[in-house]
Structure formats: C-alpha cells, structure tokens
Write a structure and sequence with these properties.
The complex is a heterodimer. Chain A is about 75% helix and about 0% strand. Chain A has ten helices and no strands. By secondary structure, chain B is α/β, with parallel strands linked by helices. Chain B has ten helices and twelve strands. In chain B, strands 1, 5, 6, 7, 8, 9, 10, 11 and 12 form a nine-stranded mixed beta sheet that branches. Chain B has a three-stranded antiparallel beta sheet with strand order 2-3-4, with helices on one face. In chain B, helix 2 packs across helix 9. The termini of chain B are far apart. The relative contact order of chain B is 0.18. Classes of the chains: A mainly alpha, B alpha/beta. Chains A and B meet through helix 9 of A and strand 10 and helix 7 of B.
Chain lengths: ~290, ~270
C-alpha cells in the first residue's frame, strides 16, 4: 500500500504536465490510536448522553429529584396522548387542506387558502385560549339554543386543547402536503390520466403515495414540534407535563430540581421520537 | 461588508431602544421631600413594586382609565408618602413571583399575599395588614354548598396556581382534581361558562369578581378565616422595618381601617 501512493502521485504529476503544485498533505504525525479519528465522533450525542446520565443519577440518588420524577410521570402520559391525537387530526386536516389547495375547484381552493392564511396568522397560544374560552362555549350555547342538548362538560379542556392544536398545526401540514404533491412531476399525472384514471384515482394511486414519502421528513419534524407546543395547553389548566411541573414548583418552592426534571423528560421524549422518525424515513427511503 | 456592518449596528440600536422602552406602568407621585414625624426617611428613593394587575380589589386595571387601581396602589402610595419614597409599579406574573422576589428582582411585592411559614423561608414579610378568609365562589344559581361539593364527584373546583387557595382547595377537596389556572380571571371565566362549578378564592377577591360580574356569581360558603395578608420583600431587605413602621402608624391613626373599608377588605 505504501508503495502505491507515491506511484499514483508520480502518475498524476506526469499527466498534468508536471505543473501540479505541491498541495498534497504534509505527512501526518502517526496518531496514538491508528484507525481512530475522534473528530468524526458524534460529540453532540455523547454530550447529551452524559447530561442524561447526570440527571438520571440525580433522580436515582436524590430524594427530591426522585419524588419530582414520580409526580411528573402522569404528565408524560397526558402530553403523549395530547400530542398523538392532535397530530393524527392535524395530518388528516392537512391532507384535505393540501388537496384543496392544489385543486381547481373554486370553493375548496378558497376555503383552504382562507383557513391556512388565517390560522398561520394567529399565535398558537392565542388560538388555544380563543378556542377553549370563546369558540367552544359559544358553540355549546348555539347548539343548546337550537335544541340540541349538549353540555359544556362534554368538551373537557383536554379535548379543546387537542382540537386547538389540530387546527393550528393542520394549516402547516396543509402547506407541507401541498409542497409534496406539487413536487411530483406533472408527467406522473399525465401518465395516470392517459391510462384512463380520473383525477381522484390518479391522486389516490399514483400521486399521493409518492408525495407522502416525500413529506415524511417535514411531517416528522412537525410532530416533534407539536410535542413541545403541547406545553402551551398549560394555560387551560390541563395536567400535562409543564402544568404538573409548575404545580410542583409552586408547592415545593424548588425551582431548579423541578424544571431540570421537566426539561430532561421533554428532551428524552423528543430525542426518542426523532430517532423513531429517522428510522421510519430510512425504512421508506426513496430508491430513485 | 460595510452594508452588513451598518445593518448589524441598526439592529443593535433598535434592540437597545426597545429595551429602554420596557418597564413600569404607573409611577406614584414625586416624593414629598420629608417623611412623617417619627418614621424612617428613605430620602425620596425609588422602589419597584411588583403587582399582578389581575387581582381585584388589590390591584387591577381600571376599564375606564386603563390605569392600575386597587388597595395596593392606595396603600403603597400612602406608605411612601409617610416614609418618603417614590413607588415604581411594575406588572409581574404571579407564577414565578416567589423565585423572582427571592432573587431580588423587585423591592416589594404587593398582591394580597398570604403569610405562610414555608414562604417565609425564602422571602421576607411585613406585618400583616388584614386578615381574610377563603370562600367557595360559585355561579348565582348554584344550590350546592361546600359540604355537598365535597361529596359530589361531578362538582369541579378551580383556583389559581401557586396560591394558598390552591393548597386549601387540595386539602378541602382531597378527592377532586383541582384545576389550577394562570390567574383568577381565567378561573372565573371557566366558572361562568360552566367548565367548573366552584373557585376557591379569598373573600375580598370574590367580592371583587362579583362586582365585575353583576348577578352572575355568589359565595357558597366560607372555608377558612385566618389568612394574614402582608407585603413581600426579598430576604434580608432593609425596607421591611420602614414599611412596618408606616403600617403601624396607619393602624394607629385609622388610615388602614378606612382603606380596608374602602376596598371591601373589611365591612
């Protein structure tokens, strides 16, 4: 091997007419551990892992941390539940919105565009408060006025939070799906139509399967973002992770312990989910 | 390079200007120049007073004038007249106010704060200026009372996060999941719309909200009657003694009594 490199160099110099500058690397000092290149290691992951190990050992070792951790475990279930349900509804809403935004139907196109522009213009926390304290009670009153016996208790705060998050994120997913659909070359639709499919069949069998694979990265991204935005529903007094953290802090006066554990739990959830999303992406990788 | 540099400096100047704009709301009048006879003189010093502005009758925003009004504003203005200081009111959120006070972020917290021994370990308190009780605030057409609430599983109770009301609610209704909102405004909103059936709240604040929502609310029952309210200071603050002296003087000449009556703290 060692004899080959100088030979290749000579060949290069010969073929470049001898004009090759001596820009080759200076001979490296032999490394302590041959074959180990520390600059290529994922230092960010190692740092995070060490941090996680530190907090875990605190949780196991210190009674304050352990009690806080046990208290906050219920919050994890609620947070995950809210995130998953909101994301499912947001994706469905987004798919419909995306399709409407590329359709030639005047009504659907305008309705979808109105929805997207309006919802993207309102901050998520304002939307959550608006829907929970304004829209839902008004809706209940209207329905009661029309004679339909609904009680506001049928819509607990958690349900309203899920609805608000779904509506808020549906607008963004709509744009994501639209981008995915529009990224499929026109030739696909033309080919599908030439095979005798109508618009809906072409969408369902040809365009959408390809588009969905394309939008998985941004969709996964939004899922993780939604996990963190679920903390906004603390303003509705829903007992998810952030709310439990605040309650704990208020009753124990221990700020650092409580929020270290809350941050640790959120980070663990998002890192787990982002690895799951990466795995899904790899599984559905486009072999083009 | 020149263009990026000028853009960068423009952004810095703008952010500095914005930072300078932030700050307090109403500032009390200018210092009178001298303190009352026999009371410590702070020499016209400006002190920052943290208020929530969401807690009538202690501090709230008057709808008509847009200014902060309430017992706290009147009382602190009166105290500062007596000990020669200038109050600078700053709006702060209730959640996180105790860590903020412990970290010396404000000189005084005036928000109808109940004295508890646990809180006294992290912050300093003045002498109490009034004793209030906690009540269960309900809609006007509510037929259940406090005892019935305890046994009725469908009766939901709310309060504000991090208050002694939350602590009392947890102990009075141990079987219920207490909904802790950001502030009492949100809790009362939930009460009126039917999301919850009762709010555990100080009796004076209950009257404050009943006044704001004529005819919609009523007090269903008394829960406690021994809450001592006081001003809060950072631990080791040197304002505690002057404030206490001023409060004693106000108690002696009846000013405190008339203030309490004016804002409905006592009958």
């Amino acid at each position: 091997m060692d004899g080959l490199l100088p030979a290749i160099r000579l060949i290069f110099i010969h073929f470049s007419g001898g004009k090759m500058e001596t820009t080759e690397k200076m001979p490296q000092r032999p490394s302590l551990l041959p074959g180990v290149d520390a600059s290529k290691w994922p230092w960010w992951a190692i740092a995070l892992a060490l941090l996680g190990l530190a907090v875990s050992s605190l949780i196991v070792g210190s009674s304050n941390y352990r009690e806080t951790f046990i208290y906050l475990l219920d919050g994890i279930a609620t947070t995950l539940r809210i995130t998953l349900l909101s994301f499912v509804f947001a994706t469905i809403l987004g798919l419909m919105t995306g399709l409407a935004r590329v359709s030639k139907n005047v009504f659907f196109f305008n309705l979808a565009t109105l929805y997207v522009e309006m919802i993207r213009g309102i901050p998520l926390i304002v939307l959550i408060i608006y829907i929970a304290f304004g829209v839902v009670p008004a809706l209940v009153e209207i329905l009661n006025g029309m004679g339909i016996p609904v009680s506001i208790r049928d819509w607990p705060m958690e349900v309203r939070a899920i609805v608000a998050l779904a509506i808020g994120y549906g607008a963004y997913e709509g744009e994501v799906f639209r981008a995915g659909i529009q990224s499929i070359s026109k030739g696909q639709m033309e080919a599908a139509k030439s095979l005798g499919m109508n618009y809906l069949q072409a969408m369902r069998f040809v365009i959408l399967p390809q588009a969905v694979r394309r939008v998985l990265p941004p969709l996964g991204n939004d899922f993780i973002s939604l996990l963190k935005d679920s903390s906004l529903v603390t303003v509705l007094a829903v007992n998810e992770l952030t709310q439990l953290g605040r309650l704990r802090r208020a009753s124990t006066f221990r700020f650092l312990e409580t929020f270290n554990v809350v941050a640790f739990l959120y980070l663990s959830m998002t890192l787990l989910l982002s690895s799951a999303v990466r795995w899904l992406e790899n599984k559905m990788k486009i072999q083009e | 390079m020149k263009k990026t540099l000028s853009l960068f400096s423009l952004i810095i100047i703008l952010s500095l200007a914005l930072a300078a704009c932030g700050g307090g709301q109403a500032t009390g009048g200018t210092g009178s120049g001298t303190a009352q006879e026999g009371l410590p003189d702070l020499g016209g010093k400006t002190i920052t007073i943290a208020v929530e502005n969401a807690y009538p009758p202690f501090n709230s925003i008057d709808e008509a004038s847009g200014q902060g009004v309430g017992w706290d504003y009147d009382a602190v203005n009166e105290i500062c007249k007596r000990i020669n200081c200038v109050p600078d009111y700053k709006q702060a959120a209730w959640d996180g106010i105790f860590p903020a006070m412990a970290a010396n972020e404000y000189d005084v917290l005036a928000d109808g704060v109940t004295y508890t021994e646990e809180r006294a370990q992290t912050v300093a308190f003045s002498i109490p200026y009034v004793t209030v009780g906690q009540v269960l605030l309900t809609r006007a057409n509510e037929t259940r009372d406090v005892e019935t609430f305890k046994s009725d599983a469908s009766a939901l109770v709310g309060t504000q996060i991090g208050t002694t009301n939350a602590i009392v609610a947890e102990s009075t209704f141990p079987d219920k999941s207490i909904q802790a909102f950001e502030d009492f405004g949100a809790a009362v909103l939930a009460l009126i719309s039917g999301d919850i059936d009762g709010v555990v709240i100080d009796n004076v604040t209950a009257s404050g909200y009943m006044g704001e929502n004529e005819g919609k609310l009523k007090i269903a029952g008394q829960i406690t009657s021994d809450e001592q309210l006081a001003f809060v200071f950072p631990p080791g603050s040197d304002l505690v003694a002057p404030f206490n002296a001023a409060l004693e003087a106000m108690k002696a000449d009846g000013t405190l009594d008339s203030l309490n009556k004016k804002w409905g703290l006592t009958d």
